[in-house]
Amino acid sequence: MNRLLIVFFSLMMSFPLFSQEGKYELSVNGWPATLADFDSFRTEQSSTPQGAVVSLLAALDLFSKNEEEGRKALILILDAGSLTTDTSAKGYKGFNVSKNTLDLVRRQLSQNPNLTGSYLPGSSTQNGYTPSAPPYSFTLTANRYSGEVKNGAIKLFVPCSGASSPRPVSTKQNSKGAWKVSEFSSLLVGIAKPANQSNPADDL
Q: Considering the entire predicted model, what is its pTM?
């Protein structure tokens, strides 16, 4: 039994938790408040997977404040697998967010109004998930199962001030070399209640 344990720990030491590029850092001077701002922002950041993830956070934040502009922002940052062709007036640049994805975003942000703030620097349960003002510095991580940038697909993990562990976002590089988000449902999971949130039952 002891010999098996030694072999097990030897194997664990042979595979470090993080790859050589385990940390993916990004600093931004501003934060998009409109769709036009977002379009410029994601164009500037789309050359890296961490740029795509941070752009997704910006799109979700915009969605929480202006659903119509946020939906269009999601169209710009999501991989084609999360989009549908839509040439109607409801579409944007010939596409729309798939119904399942849009319904999930709408439902989860409605049920968790502090969710987007929990991914931004400066937020905490103590301050009601109110982020600090830009500039922002983000540090995302990857593990040995994340994939590699050189292969055009990688999963990065986003810190969340309302959860005990970072949450995964999968990214892909498209045919033009831009990084897009291909899967992000874990970002939409609920978070801890803010410390200053009152409970109506306390007054009974």
A: 0.86
